[in-house]
Amino acid sequence: MGWSRNATHQGSIMHIIRSMITASPMIIADTHLVSSNVAEADYPTYSTTEAVVAGARRQVVSPSATVTLSISAPCVVTWTQSQLPDNTPIRFTTTGSLPTGVVPGTIYYVRRLTDSTYNLAIKPNGQGINTSGTQSGTHTGFATVHDVYEALLDSGVSTASSISGTTLTVGGTVTGSYEIGHILSGTGVTANTTIVALGTGTGGAGTYTVSVSQTVASTTITGVSPTTNNNHWARADSTNRWRMHDSAVSSQTSNVDNIVNIYSTSGYTEALLFSNIDAASVRVKMVDDIDGTVYDKTISGVADSGIQDWYSYFTEPIIRKTDILITDMPLYANTTLTVTITTGAGQTVLCGLLYFGKLLELGGTQYGMSLGIQDYSIKTTDDFGNQTFKEGAYSRTAKIIMKVDNDFVDTLHNVLAGYRAIPIVYLGSLSFGSSFIFGKYNDFNIEIPHPAFSTCSIEIEGLI
After folding, report:
1. Exposure winner among 112, 145, 431, 463, fewest CB in 10 A?
2. In this structure, are 315 and 457 located in the same domain?
3. Strand partners, 195
Protein backbone atom coordinates (compact mmCIF):
# COMPACT_ATOMS: atom_id res chain seq x y z
CA MET A 1 0.00 0.00 0.00
CA GLY A 2 2.09 2.88 -1.33
CA TRP A 3 0.37 5.80 0.42
CA SER A 4 0.74 4.53 3.95
CA ARG A 5 4.28 3.27 3.43
CA ASN A 6 5.37 6.67 2.14
CA ALA A 7 3.56 8.68 4.84
CA THR A 8 5.98 10.97 6.70
CA HIS A 9 4.20 10.74 10.04
CA GLN A 10 3.09 7.29 11.21
CA GLY A 11 0.49 8.78 13.56
CA SER A 12 -1.45 10.08 10.53
CA ILE A 13 -2.17 6.59 9.26
CA MET A 14 -5.46 4.87 10.05
CA HIS A 15 -5.18 1.23 11.13
CA ILE A 16 -7.39 -1.59 12.27
CA ILE A 17 -6.39 -4.40 14.61
CA ARG A 18 -7.62 -7.72 13.30
CA SER A 19 -8.34 -10.17 16.11
CA MET A 20 -7.17 -13.77 16.12
CA ILE A 21 -10.86 -14.68 16.22
CA THR A 22 -13.48 -12.39 14.72
CA ALA A 23 -16.11 -13.53 17.16
CA SER A 24 -19.02 -11.66 18.60
CA PRO A 25 -19.29 -11.12 21.50
CA MET A 26 -16.04 -12.90 22.45
CA ILE A 27 -12.83 -11.85 20.72
CA ILE A 28 -10.77 -14.74 22.05
CA ALA A 29 -11.66 -18.32 22.92
CA ASP A 30 -11.00 -20.58 25.89
CA THR A 31 -8.01 -22.07 24.09
CA HIS A 32 -6.32 -18.67 24.09
CA LEU A 33 -6.81 -17.45 27.67
CA VAL A 34 -4.96 -20.32 29.31
CA SER A 35 -4.40 -18.83 32.77
CA SER A 36 -5.69 -15.96 34.92
CA ASN A 37 -5.39 -14.89 38.55
CA VAL A 38 -8.95 -13.50 38.40
CA ALA A 39 -11.33 -16.03 39.92
CA GLU A 40 -14.33 -17.12 37.88
CA ALA A 41 -16.80 -17.96 40.64
CA ASP A 42 -19.04 -14.90 40.64
CA TYR A 43 -22.29 -16.85 41.11
CA PRO A 44 -23.43 -20.48 41.44
CA THR A 45 -23.33 -22.47 38.22
CA TYR A 46 -26.61 -22.80 36.31
CA SER A 47 -28.16 -26.25 36.64
CA THR A 48 -31.17 -27.78 34.94
CA THR A 49 -32.06 -29.49 38.23
CA GLU A 50 -31.90 -26.48 40.56
CA ALA A 51 -34.99 -24.36 41.13
CA VAL A 52 -34.36 -20.61 41.26
CA VAL A 53 -36.38 -17.60 42.34
CA ALA A 54 -36.79 -14.40 40.36
CA GLY A 55 -33.72 -12.21 40.71
CA ALA A 56 -31.30 -15.08 41.31
CA ARG A 57 -28.15 -15.04 39.19
CA ARG A 58 -26.38 -18.03 37.73
CA GLN A 59 -23.28 -18.33 35.57
CA VAL A 60 -22.63 -20.56 32.58
CA VAL A 61 -18.91 -21.18 32.08
CA SER A 62 -16.96 -23.21 29.51
CA PRO A 63 -19.44 -26.06 28.92
CA SER A 64 -18.21 -29.23 27.21
CA ALA A 65 -19.93 -32.52 26.40
CA THR A 66 -20.07 -35.45 24.02
CA VAL A 67 -21.69 -34.36 20.76
CA THR A 68 -22.74 -35.89 17.46
CA LEU A 69 -22.16 -34.41 14.00
CA SER A 70 -24.21 -35.29 10.95
CA ILE A 71 -22.73 -35.85 7.52
CA SER A 72 -25.00 -33.50 5.61
CA ALA A 73 -25.34 -30.13 3.92
CA PRO A 74 -25.29 -28.30 6.20
CA CYS A 75 -23.84 -30.24 9.12
CA VAL A 76 -26.01 -30.48 12.25
CA VAL A 77 -24.33 -30.70 15.65
CA THR A 78 -26.41 -32.27 18.42
CA TRP A 79 -25.42 -31.26 21.95
CA THR A 80 -28.29 -32.14 24.28
CA GLN A 81 -29.66 -29.14 26.21
CA SER A 82 -26.49 -27.11 25.66
CA GLN A 83 -28.54 -23.93 25.07
CA LEU A 84 -25.79 -22.07 23.20
CA PRO A 85 -26.59 -18.58 21.88
CA ASP A 86 -26.05 -17.80 18.20
CA ASN A 87 -22.41 -17.26 17.19
CA THR A 88 -20.93 -18.96 20.25
CA PRO A 89 -17.34 -20.01 19.41
CA ILE A 90 -17.02 -23.80 19.57
CA ARG A 91 -14.29 -26.35 18.86
CA PHE A 92 -14.08 -30.15 18.77
CA THR A 93 -11.80 -33.00 19.77
CA THR A 94 -12.29 -36.65 18.90
CA THR A 95 -11.00 -40.10 19.79
CA GLY A 96 -11.34 -41.08 16.13
CA SER A 97 -11.96 -38.86 13.12
CA LEU A 98 -14.38 -36.01 12.47
CA PRO A 99 -16.36 -35.75 9.22
CA THR A 100 -14.60 -34.08 6.29
CA GLY A 101 -15.22 -30.34 6.61
CA VAL A 102 -14.67 -30.13 10.39
CA VAL A 103 -11.11 -29.88 11.73
CA PRO A 104 -10.22 -30.67 15.37
CA GLY A 105 -9.22 -27.58 17.34
CA THR A 106 -10.54 -25.10 14.74
CA ILE A 107 -12.92 -22.43 16.04
CA TYR A 108 -16.40 -22.48 14.51
CA TYR A 109 -19.52 -20.45 15.30
CA VAL A 110 -22.86 -22.06 16.02
CA ARG A 111 -26.03 -21.15 14.15
CA ARG A 112 -28.73 -22.07 16.62
CA LEU A 113 -31.58 -24.39 15.55
CA THR A 114 -32.90 -25.56 18.95
CA ASP A 115 -31.64 -25.81 22.53
CA SER A 116 -29.76 -28.94 21.42
CA THR A 117 -28.97 -28.60 17.70
CA TYR A 118 -26.83 -26.22 15.65
CA ASN A 119 -25.30 -25.58 12.27
CA LEU A 120 -21.64 -24.53 12.13
CA ALA A 121 -20.14 -21.51 10.37
CA ILE A 122 -16.55 -20.42 9.84
CA LYS A 123 -17.39 -16.83 10.84
CA PRO A 124 -20.15 -15.16 12.90
CA ASN A 125 -23.49 -15.16 11.06
CA GLY A 126 -21.89 -17.17 8.26
CA GLN A 127 -23.37 -19.90 6.10
CA GLY A 128 -23.62 -23.41 7.53
CA ILE A 129 -20.72 -25.64 6.53
CA ASN A 130 -21.20 -28.97 4.80
CA THR A 131 -19.69 -32.28 5.87
CA SER A 132 -18.92 -35.43 3.90
CA GLY A 133 -16.97 -38.67 4.11
CA THR A 134 -17.00 -40.89 7.19
CA GLN A 135 -16.41 -40.41 10.91
CA SER A 136 -15.46 -42.51 13.90
CA GLY A 137 -14.86 -42.34 17.63
CA THR A 138 -16.36 -40.09 20.28
CA HIS A 139 -16.54 -36.37 19.59
CA THR A 140 -16.43 -33.70 22.31
CA GLY A 141 -17.56 -30.12 21.90
CA PHE A 142 -16.09 -27.18 23.85
CA ALA A 143 -17.89 -23.82 23.87
CA THR A 144 -16.60 -20.38 24.80
CA VAL A 145 -19.31 -19.21 27.17
CA HIS A 146 -18.70 -16.98 30.20
CA ASP A 147 -22.12 -15.48 30.87
CA VAL A 148 -24.14 -14.45 33.91
CA TYR A 149 -27.95 -14.77 33.70
CA GLU A 150 -30.64 -13.39 35.98
CA ALA A 151 -33.89 -15.29 36.54
CA LEU A 152 -37.03 -13.32 35.69
CA LEU A 153 -39.51 -15.90 37.07
CA ASP A 154 -39.57 -18.55 39.78
CA SER A 155 -38.94 -22.13 38.69
CA GLY A 156 -41.79 -24.62 39.11
CA VAL A 157 -41.66 -27.06 42.05
CA SER A 158 -44.40 -29.48 43.12
CA THR A 159 -44.22 -31.94 46.01
CA ALA A 160 -46.55 -34.63 44.66
CA SER A 161 -46.26 -35.01 40.90
CA SER A 162 -46.13 -38.05 38.65
CA ILE A 163 -45.63 -38.99 35.00
CA SER A 164 -47.59 -41.63 33.12
CA GLY A 165 -46.57 -42.03 29.49
CA THR A 166 -46.22 -38.50 28.19
CA THR A 167 -48.55 -36.91 30.76
CA LEU A 168 -47.16 -35.01 33.72
CA THR A 169 -49.63 -34.52 36.57
CA VAL A 170 -48.66 -31.69 38.91
CA GLY A 171 -50.08 -31.84 42.41
CA GLY A 172 -49.30 -31.33 46.07
CA THR A 173 -47.78 -28.03 47.12
CA VAL A 174 -46.88 -26.03 44.00
CA THR A 175 -44.54 -23.04 43.98
CA GLY A 176 -43.44 -21.01 41.01
CA SER A 177 -44.75 -21.85 37.57
CA TYR A 178 -44.41 -24.69 35.03
CA GLU A 179 -43.98 -23.56 31.43
CA ILE A 180 -43.51 -25.07 27.97
CA GLY A 181 -39.79 -25.73 27.50
CA HIS A 182 -39.08 -26.38 31.17
CA ILE A 183 -36.52 -29.10 31.81
CA LEU A 184 -37.83 -31.54 34.41
CA SER A 185 -35.93 -33.31 37.16
CA GLY A 186 -36.79 -35.53 40.11
CA THR A 187 -36.44 -39.10 41.33
CA GLY A 188 -36.93 -41.43 38.36
CA VAL A 189 -37.38 -38.64 35.76
CA THR A 190 -35.52 -39.30 32.51
CA ALA A 191 -32.76 -36.74 31.95
CA ASN A 192 -33.58 -33.84 29.64
CA THR A 193 -37.34 -34.45 29.73
CA THR A 194 -39.10 -31.21 28.78
CA ILE A 195 -42.65 -29.88 28.84
CA VAL A 196 -43.86 -29.64 25.23
CA ALA A 197 -47.51 -28.66 25.69
CA LEU A 198 -50.05 -27.52 28.27
CA GLY A 199 -52.92 -29.77 29.33
CA THR A 200 -55.27 -28.71 32.10
CA GLY A 201 -52.38 -27.01 33.86
CA THR A 202 -51.44 -23.44 32.99
CA GLY A 203 -48.48 -23.02 35.27
CA GLY A 204 -49.78 -24.60 38.47
CA ALA A 205 -51.58 -27.84 39.34
CA GLY A 206 -52.90 -29.85 36.39
CA THR A 207 -51.60 -31.88 33.49
CA TYR A 208 -48.86 -31.22 30.94
CA THR A 209 -47.43 -33.11 27.95
CA VAL A 210 -43.74 -34.10 28.21
CA SER A 211 -41.19 -35.02 25.57
CA VAL A 212 -40.28 -38.54 26.79
CA SER A 213 -42.69 -41.36 27.62
CA GLN A 214 -41.99 -42.82 31.07
CA THR A 215 -43.51 -43.84 34.37
CA VAL A 216 -42.64 -41.85 37.49
CA ALA A 217 -44.34 -42.42 40.83
CA SER A 218 -45.48 -39.47 42.92
CA THR A 219 -42.42 -37.39 43.87
CA THR A 220 -41.09 -33.85 43.93
CA ILE A 221 -40.58 -32.66 40.35
CA THR A 222 -38.78 -29.45 39.48
CA GLY A 223 -39.19 -27.54 36.23
CA VAL A 224 -36.34 -25.21 35.23
CA SER A 225 -36.32 -22.96 32.19
CA PRO A 226 -33.27 -22.99 29.88
CA THR A 227 -31.25 -19.77 29.90
CA THR A 228 -32.09 -19.30 26.22
CA ASN A 229 -35.70 -18.55 27.19
CA ASN A 230 -35.76 -14.75 27.07
CA ASN A 231 -39.03 -14.64 28.96
CA HIS A 232 -37.52 -16.44 31.94
CA TRP A 233 -33.86 -15.36 31.88
CA ALA A 234 -31.95 -12.22 30.96
CA ARG A 235 -28.26 -12.15 30.23
CA ALA A 236 -26.97 -9.79 32.90
CA ASP A 237 -23.22 -9.71 32.38
CA SER A 238 -20.08 -11.59 31.57
CA THR A 239 -18.19 -13.22 34.40
CA ASN A 240 -15.64 -10.89 35.99
CA ARG A 241 -12.67 -12.66 34.38
CA TRP A 242 -14.09 -12.24 30.89
CA ARG A 243 -15.50 -8.70 31.02
CA MET A 244 -12.29 -7.46 29.43
CA HIS A 245 -12.89 -9.81 26.50
CA ASP A 246 -16.58 -9.29 25.71
CA SER A 247 -18.26 -6.61 23.60
CA ALA A 248 -18.96 -4.19 26.46
CA VAL A 249 -16.07 -1.76 26.89
CA SER A 250 -17.83 -0.12 29.85
CA SER A 251 -17.91 -3.33 31.91
CA GLN A 252 -14.54 -3.89 33.55
CA THR A 253 -12.65 -6.89 34.87
CA SER A 254 -11.55 -6.00 38.39
CA ASN A 255 -9.05 -7.52 40.80
CA VAL A 256 -7.12 -6.40 43.85
CA ASP A 257 -3.46 -5.46 43.21
CA ASN A 258 -3.15 -6.86 39.69
CA ILE A 259 -4.56 -8.85 36.79
CA VAL A 260 -2.20 -11.49 35.41
CA ASN A 261 -3.41 -13.27 32.26
CA ILE A 262 -1.48 -15.71 30.07
CA TYR A 263 -2.54 -16.15 26.45
CA SER A 264 -1.61 -18.70 23.83
CA THR A 265 -1.88 -16.83 20.54
CA SER A 266 -2.60 -18.16 17.08
CA GLY A 267 -1.22 -16.32 14.07
CA TYR A 268 0.67 -13.07 14.39
CA THR A 269 0.16 -10.63 17.25
CA GLU A 270 1.83 -7.24 16.91
CA ALA A 271 -0.60 -4.83 18.58
CA LEU A 272 -2.52 -4.67 21.86
CA LEU A 273 -5.08 -2.14 23.00
CA PHE A 274 -6.10 -1.71 26.64
CA SER A 275 -9.23 0.45 26.87
CA ASN A 276 -11.25 1.81 29.81
CA ILE A 277 -8.32 0.87 32.00
CA ASP A 278 -7.38 2.11 35.47
CA ALA A 279 -3.89 0.91 36.36
CA ALA A 280 -0.51 2.16 37.48
CA SER A 281 1.34 0.13 34.83
CA VAL A 282 0.95 -2.51 32.16
CA ARG A 283 3.59 -5.11 31.32
CA VAL A 284 3.48 -7.28 28.19
CA LYS A 285 5.88 -10.19 27.73
CA MET A 286 6.03 -12.29 24.55
CA VAL A 287 7.74 -15.69 24.54
CA ASP A 288 8.51 -17.73 21.43
CA ASP A 289 8.97 -21.49 21.71
CA ILE A 290 12.35 -21.32 19.96
CA ASP A 291 13.77 -17.85 20.60
CA GLY A 292 12.50 -17.44 24.16
CA THR A 293 11.54 -13.95 25.36
CA VAL A 294 11.35 -11.70 22.28
CA TYR A 295 9.46 -8.76 23.85
CA ASP A 296 9.15 -7.45 27.38
CA LYS A 297 7.88 -3.94 27.97
CA THR A 298 6.32 -2.05 30.86
CA ILE A 299 4.24 1.08 30.22
CA SER A 300 3.20 3.58 32.88
CA GLY A 301 -0.51 4.13 33.36
CA VAL A 302 -0.03 7.77 34.40
CA ALA A 303 -1.24 10.30 31.82
CA ASP A 304 1.01 13.27 31.05
CA SER A 305 -0.66 14.69 27.95
CA GLY A 306 -1.99 17.71 29.87
CA ILE A 307 1.36 18.62 31.43
CA GLN A 308 2.81 21.49 29.42
CA ASP A 309 5.16 23.14 31.93
CA TRP A 310 6.81 22.70 35.34
CA TYR A 311 3.98 24.50 37.12
CA SER A 312 1.49 21.97 35.74
CA TYR A 313 3.87 19.15 36.56
CA PHE A 314 3.87 20.03 40.26
CA THR A 315 0.28 21.29 40.70
CA GLU A 316 -1.98 19.28 38.41
CA PRO A 317 -3.62 16.18 39.95
CA ILE A 318 -2.25 12.83 38.85
CA ILE A 319 -4.59 11.13 36.44
CA ARG A 320 -4.32 7.79 34.68
CA LYS A 321 -4.56 6.87 31.05
CA THR A 322 -7.83 5.36 29.89
CA ASP A 323 -6.20 3.78 26.82
CA ILE A 324 -2.83 2.12 26.34
CA LEU A 325 -1.81 1.04 22.83
CA ILE A 326 1.20 -1.13 21.99
CA THR A 327 2.20 -1.42 18.31
CA ASP A 328 5.91 -2.30 18.37
CA MET A 329 5.76 -6.02 19.06
CA PRO A 330 7.89 -8.24 16.80
CA LEU A 331 6.20 -10.40 14.20
CA TYR A 332 6.26 -13.82 15.82
CA ALA A 333 3.46 -16.31 15.26
CA ASN A 334 1.88 -18.62 17.85
CA THR A 335 3.54 -17.15 20.92
CA THR A 336 2.73 -17.00 24.64
CA LEU A 337 1.75 -13.58 25.96
CA THR A 338 1.85 -12.72 29.65
CA VAL A 339 -0.09 -9.55 30.44
CA THR A 340 0.29 -8.00 33.90
CA ILE A 341 -1.90 -5.02 34.79
CA THR A 342 -0.87 -3.53 38.12
CA THR A 343 -2.14 -0.88 40.52
CA GLY A 344 -1.19 0.22 44.05
CA ALA A 345 -1.05 -2.34 46.86
CA GLY A 346 -4.52 -3.03 48.19
CA GLN A 347 -6.17 -1.08 45.37
CA THR A 348 -8.41 -2.45 42.62
CA VAL A 349 -7.16 -2.58 39.05
CA LEU A 350 -9.74 -2.26 36.26
CA CYS A 351 -9.71 -3.15 32.56
CA GLY A 352 -12.67 -2.79 30.21
CA LEU A 353 -11.05 -4.19 27.06
CA LEU A 354 -7.92 -6.06 26.06
CA TYR A 355 -7.84 -6.60 22.32
CA PHE A 356 -4.88 -7.93 20.39
CA GLY A 357 -4.07 -9.03 16.88
CA LYS A 358 -2.33 -7.92 13.69
CA LEU A 359 -2.26 -4.36 12.42
CA LEU A 360 -3.50 -3.44 8.96
CA GLU A 361 -2.88 0.01 7.48
CA LEU A 362 -5.95 1.40 5.75
CA GLY A 363 -4.85 4.83 4.56
CA GLY A 364 -3.60 8.27 5.46
CA THR A 365 -5.91 10.04 7.92
CA GLN A 366 -6.68 13.55 6.68
CA TYR A 367 -7.06 16.70 8.74
CA GLY A 368 -10.66 17.25 9.79
CA MET A 369 -11.08 13.98 11.69
CA SER A 370 -14.11 14.35 13.98
CA LEU A 371 -14.13 12.64 17.39
CA GLY A 372 -17.02 12.55 19.87
CA ILE A 373 -19.18 10.41 22.11
CA GLN A 374 -22.72 9.06 22.17
CA ASP A 375 -23.97 9.69 25.72
CA TYR A 376 -26.53 7.34 27.25
CA SER A 377 -27.15 9.35 30.41
CA ILE A 378 -30.80 10.09 31.24
CA LYS A 379 -32.38 13.39 32.21
CA THR A 380 -35.85 13.33 33.78
CA THR A 381 -38.15 16.24 34.66
CA ASP A 382 -40.96 15.94 37.21
CA ASP A 383 -44.32 17.79 37.22
CA PHE A 384 -42.75 20.73 39.08
CA GLY A 385 -39.90 21.20 36.64
CA ASN A 386 -37.23 19.66 38.85
CA GLN A 387 -34.63 17.86 36.80
CA THR A 388 -32.52 14.89 37.78
CA PHE A 389 -29.69 13.26 35.91
CA LYS A 390 -28.71 9.62 35.89
CA GLU A 391 -25.24 9.08 34.52
CA GLY A 392 -25.13 6.31 31.94
CA ALA A 393 -22.49 4.72 29.78
CA TYR A 394 -21.17 6.30 26.61
CA SER A 395 -19.56 5.13 23.40
CA ARG A 396 -16.95 6.81 21.23
CA THR A 397 -17.71 8.00 17.72
CA ALA A 398 -15.51 9.15 14.86
CA LYS A 399 -15.84 10.52 11.32
CA ILE A 400 -12.65 10.04 9.34
CA ILE A 401 -11.50 10.72 5.80
CA MET A 402 -8.57 8.67 4.51
CA LYS A 403 -6.35 9.06 1.47
CA VAL A 404 -5.81 5.68 -0.20
CA ASP A 405 -3.70 4.49 -3.14
CA ASN A 406 -5.93 3.37 -5.99
CA ASP A 407 -4.22 -0.01 -6.12
CA PHE A 408 -5.52 -0.62 -2.58
CA VAL A 409 -9.13 0.45 -3.16
CA ASP A 410 -10.53 -3.01 -3.93
CA THR A 411 -8.70 -4.54 -0.96
CA LEU A 412 -9.96 -1.80 1.37
CA HIS A 413 -13.52 -2.23 0.10
CA ASN A 414 -13.42 -5.98 0.65
CA VAL A 415 -11.79 -5.72 4.09
CA LEU A 416 -14.36 -3.26 5.39
CA ALA A 417 -17.25 -5.20 3.86
CA GLY A 418 -16.02 -8.25 5.75
CA TYR A 419 -16.41 -6.43 9.08
CA ARG A 420 -20.01 -5.26 8.58
CA ALA A 421 -21.35 -6.77 11.82
CA ILE A 422 -18.15 -7.74 13.62
CA PRO A 423 -16.64 -5.35 16.16
CA ILE A 424 -12.91 -4.70 15.79
CA VAL A 425 -10.51 -1.96 16.87
CA TYR A 426 -10.19 1.13 14.66
CA LEU A 427 -7.22 3.45 15.21
CA GLY A 428 -8.02 6.77 13.55
CA SER A 429 -4.58 8.17 14.35
CA LEU A 430 -1.87 6.76 16.59
CA SER A 431 -1.40 10.31 17.89
CA PHE A 432 -4.86 10.53 19.49
CA GLY A 433 -6.03 7.95 22.02
CA SER A 434 -9.60 9.22 21.69
CA SER A 435 -9.56 7.88 18.12
CA PHE A 436 -8.99 4.32 19.36
CA ILE A 437 -12.45 2.79 19.02
CA PHE A 438 -13.64 -0.77 19.58
CA GLY A 439 -16.84 -0.99 17.58
CA LYS A 440 -18.22 -1.10 14.07
CA TYR A 441 -18.65 1.29 11.21
CA ASN A 442 -22.08 2.59 10.28
CA ASP A 443 -21.15 3.57 6.75
CA PHE A 444 -18.19 4.03 4.45
CA ASN A 445 -17.82 5.55 1.02
CA ILE A 446 -14.90 5.51 -1.42
CA GLU A 447 -14.49 8.26 -4.03
CA ILE A 448 -11.90 8.09 -6.83
CA PRO A 449 -11.09 11.71 -7.78
CA HIS A 450 -7.52 11.16 -9.04
CA PRO A 451 -5.66 8.59 -11.17
CA ALA A 452 -3.27 7.81 -8.30
CA PHE A 453 -5.32 8.03 -5.11
CA SER A 454 -8.84 7.88 -3.71
CA THR A 455 -10.56 9.14 -0.58
CA CYS A 456 -12.54 7.00 1.83
CA SER A 457 -14.94 8.49 4.37
CA ILE A 458 -16.01 6.27 7.26
CA GLU A 459 -18.21 6.74 10.31
CA ILE A 460 -17.37 4.55 13.31
CA GLU A 461 -19.54 3.88 16.36
CA GLY A 462 -17.95 2.39 19.43
CA LEU A 463 -19.60 -0.21 21.62
CA ILE A 464 -20.73 0.79 25.09
Report:
1. 431
2. yes
3. 210
